[in-house]
Amino acid sequence: MAQSNIEWTELTWNPVTGCSKISPGCKFCYAESMTRRLTAMGVEKYKDGFKVRTHPDTLNIPYGWKKSKVVFVNSMSDLFHPEVPIEFIKAVFAVMNNTPQHVYQVLTKRSERLVELADQLTWTPNIWMGVSIENEDYAYRIDDLSLTPAKIKFLSIEPLIGPVRTLNLDGIDWVIVGGESGHKARPLEKEWIDYVKVRCEQSNVAFFFKQWGKPKFNANPNDPTIDAKHPKHAKGGCELDGEIFRELPVVAA
Question: How far are the Cα atoms of 39, 81, 82 from residue 49, in angstroms, in the given order?
Fold first, then answer.
């Protein structure tokens, strides 16, 4: 468990580490870069580098959190990676089922396996299920997500590296958009963001704009959130037409 700098969560919990590239959004994988550093530092959990590994010893961690938390599950992996056994996925879900005071955000690019296994899992309301989409070619993941029983469904359109025009938001509760950061980050166009934002407004879906990624991508070079000292600073800034959009999904009582 670790405090997170990710704007849309509080903590990260990694019962699985390691992954493999599946689509263009993976090209400059943050988790892979971070794993190299942790391996070099001699952190035992990452002794096998970016190979997929399960960590049963981490399953008890959420039971020790005294206050309710918002938790991103497997920021360093993908719970639905084909090398993660169904038995272990069920064990992770059991922990989430047994700790309803916490909100768990699960994100995958393996939407086909998500659909395959969804009926074998218990979907308590505190499990938010999301899929990553980086451009139009992967919009089909939305359709896969819609087939799951998750009570809250969300999209992480990040890194947005191309337009997404097939955006069926029926049954979707939340959309996160963000540009790629890092030395070799691919460009982000404002029209791509605007399209998603308008679709969210039309469908009454919560819209969360995370970041432009790099200042040179930002449509407004004077965006005050580019400054690292700004309280709402994000990589490359996070204003869109002079506003900050960090909406969260509406959760029924």
Answer: 6, 16, 18
